[in-house]
Design goal:
The chain has eight helices and nine strands. It is of the alpha/beta class and about 350 residues long.
Length: about 350
């Protein structure tokens, strides 16, 4: 009986152990899938095992067709590529203003095609100091025009007594004028030349020493003109190509000689005779105004002088200038320099 009881106990223990093993197996079967679902998948560094073999360039074959997939450039900085529609790095996105570094560099001009001709250079206009051919052989007495214009001209070869008054009147009235100066006067009055030029008036040559040109040879005329030009240019003005004979002394030969040296000879329509002075008190500024107005015509060239009379010290031309300008304007005249001839 005791033996039988021990066997029964062993069977019960074995059954219980078997039941415990079955229960443990069931628990493992139930708990393992849940643990697997909560775990993160391991990182993948390559294509799935089902993908095609890698190509020699590092591209992965397409799973569906075996064609190479698009290559992604390696970026060691880790900065992702810009999204579609934002262009390449360094270019502004649409609607953005480019910064200084983003300004597109213009493409270089294409080289000329073989066999093509380069464009011809544009002709250079002659300088304003060139002598027009139409003025050769003449000693011009008026500006050729049908307009009511007048050129007030002043010779300067003696004193400069009337210059401050003349420049002040021209400035106040807004009138341009032409000044024929000798080289000697220019060197003796550099401030006067500078003032004339600064006021916008035209300077011209009246020879070097105010010699009578008909008594000079062609070579001497050339030397005199060159000296006068150098002297006037030395104080800041260019007289070319306008010249007035001293004393109005000229002939065909001297006109040709002046032209050969690049100058046009300019005479006058009327001489105011203010340089003659008061003539013993019988003349005043009204005489000058009346004389010039009596010769007024289209293209008038009026001759007056800067200096004072050597004996009575009068400056009739300077004194008459305000009234002369007023009367010419009242008669419908405008004012020009002798640049109008060029």
């Amino acid at each position: 009986m005791a033996v039988l009881g021990g066997r029964r106990l062993a069977l019960v223990v074995s059954a219980i152990a078997a039941l415990l093993l079955v229960a443990a197996a069931v628990a493992i079967a139930v708990l393992r899938p849940a643990a697997l679902e909560g775990a993160a998948p391991p990182p993948t560094t390559g294509a799935p095992a089902s993908a095609g073999p890698a190509t020699g360039s590092g591209q992965q074959g397409s799973i569906a067709s075996g064609e190479p997939a698009p290559t992604e450039s390696a970026d060691p900085t880790g900065i992702p590529a810009p999204p579609p529609g934002h262009g390449t790095p360094g270019e502004p996105a649409p609607g953005e203003e480019p910064g200084p570094a983003d300004t597109p560099v213009p493409a270089p001009a294409p080289p000329p095609q073989p066999g093509s001709q380069a464009p011809s250079p544009q002709p250079v206009p002659p300088p304003s100091n060139a002598l027009p051919d139409a003025l050769r052989g003449l000693d011009i007495e008026r500006i050729p025009t049908t307009q009511r214009i007048a050129a007030l001209t002043f010779d300067a070869g003696a004193s400069s007594a009337g210059l401050p008054s003349i420049l002040a009147t021209l400035r106040d009235e807004g009138v341009p004028a032409t000044f024929f100066v000798t080289g000697q006067w220019a060197l003796a009055n550099p401030g006067g030349v500078a003032g004339i030029a600064a006021a916008g008036h035209r300077l011209a040559s009246h020879s070097m020493t105010h010699a009578a040109f008909t008594g000079l040879s062609d070579a001497e005329i050339g030397t005199d003109l060159a000296r006068a030009q150098a002297a006037i240019m030395a104080v800041g003005a260019d007289p070319r190509p306008l010249f007035r004979f001293p004393y109005g002394d000229r002939d065909a030969r001297t006109i040709a000689a002046v032209n050969a040296n690049g100058y046009a000879a300019v005479r006058w329509t009327v001489d105011s005779l203010g340089w003659q002075g008061t003539m013993g008190g019988t003349r005043g500024p009204d005489f000058v105004v009346s004389r010039v107005m009596g010769a007024a015509q289209h293209g008038l060239i009026a001759l007056m002088h800067v200096g004072s009379h050597p004996e009575d010290g009068s400056t009739l031309d300077a004194d008459a200038l305000p009234a002369l300008i007023a009367q010419l304007r009242a008669a419908g005249y405008g004012f020009v320099t002798l640049e109008a001839l060029l």
